[in-house]
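Researcher: For the annotation table, I need structure tokens for VanZ-like domain-containing protein. Please keep the output clean. Sequence:
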Amino acid sequence: MTVFGSHVPLSVWTLAVLVVGTLVSVLLARQLARRTNWSFRATLVTLLLFTAALAVTLTPGAEQHRNGVLACLPDDFTDLTREILHSGGGVAGDLLNLVLLLPLAGAIVVTTRRVLPGVALALLLPLVIEAAQTQLAGRYCSLSDLVANISGALLGVAFGSFVLRRVGDRGGW
């Protein structure tokens, strides 16, 4: 599928992960909210955003790429620069990767009422996604995707922190 001129690998697998993930999120949200004293609605939204991020990034694609961790590592400094700046599907691909984890990171901050879980997600989830993509058919890792995902997630943490300050103790969600 093409979104803003950038290829987004969506498939039947993406839909399957969304359906199963939604069912699991609904079942898990109430229990998680009770155990943690988080808002049920905020917990459900966070789990659904997590499901969507996984469905878009960790389902097989149709393109043929060189897989494995070595396909992700640059050969030299010039290759590193090219990978960071030009391997994510152009400006549209970089923007899509920037916004991919932004709402999830913000939702985690708002749901948990803490910044640290959002920062941990912002730094770790993109690494896990890119590492997993080295092993998935039709997917490949990209350093520019990694940088864009981390940047977007950190922006989401900042936004979630801003929302927490604005909502304060009014109960919010």
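Researcher: And a one-line annotation?
Model: The chain has a mean pLDDT of 84.
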